[in-house]
Design goal:
The chain is mainly α. It is built from 9 helices and no strands. The longest helix has about 35 residues.
């Protein structure tokens, strides 16, 4: 999530908006991205109430009025976080291969390297989930910043205004709309399965039961 938010801020800076930089949010320091409700309370509440964990980082502040090109800048900044998560998923998958080869070459380090491989597998899964979840066309999620430009201007404006209720709509998807959410997230599941299949020959025996 930190990389996702950093990517938004960096993309905004490249598009001419210095807001995130000036507020000290253009950093990989996780403490700067913690939101008391989204990062702490909401995950606890959702875990104890529904058996799943949902939360997020504090959104990086941006001012689209400062973009050199409003429409292009809005799309680029919105997709930057998603692109970052996809790249991180690819890097995590790729790291499993050298870790496996090193573990076979140095058996004494195999247990520790197997744990690192498991962390990389989780890295693939979490980043794919973050990428596809943020693609949901629900304002103010990132996907909505692209979807609104596919609508006539008047409709796009009203659609963006749904952001006031976006949090409630997301919670509905996570509860009563899980079937539709599962369908939307199925590409992430398929990509994870494909990546897992490719790296399976390089996996070391896991010490984690």
């Amino acid at each position: 999530m930190v990389a996702h938010e950093y990517a938004h801020g960096y993309a905004a800076l490249r598009q001419g908006d210095t807001t995130a930089y000036e507020l000290g949010r253009l950093t990989f320091n996780p403490l700067k991205h913690i939101d008391p409700f989204m990062t702490v309370l909401l995950p606890l509440m959702t875990w104890f109430s529904g058996g799943f964990i949902f939360g997020g980082a504090k959104p990086v502040p941006v001012d689209p009025r400062k973009y050199r090109n409003f429409r292009r800048g809005d799309i680029i900044v919105s997709l930057a976080g998603i692109a970052t998560n996809l790249v991180l998923a690819l890097l995590c998958a790729a790291m499993i291969v050298p870790l496996g080869l090193l573990g076979r070459a140095v058996p004494a380090a195999a247990t520790s390297l197997a744990i690192l491989q498991e962390m990389m597998r989780y890295g693939v899964m979490f980043n794919l989930v973050l990428a596809f979840f943020n693609l949901l066309p629900i304002p103010p999620l990132d996907g909505s910043h692209v979807a609104k430009y596919l609508l006539p201007p008047a409709w796009g404006l009203r659609y963006a205004q749904l952001g006031r209720f976006g949090f409630l709509i997301v919670l509905l998807f996570l509860t009563v709309g899980r079937r539709w959410l599962a369908l939307w997230m199925s590409p992430a599941e398929s990509l994870f399965a494909a990546a897992n299949g490719l790296v399976t020959p390089f996996l070391l025996p896991s010490p984690i039961s």
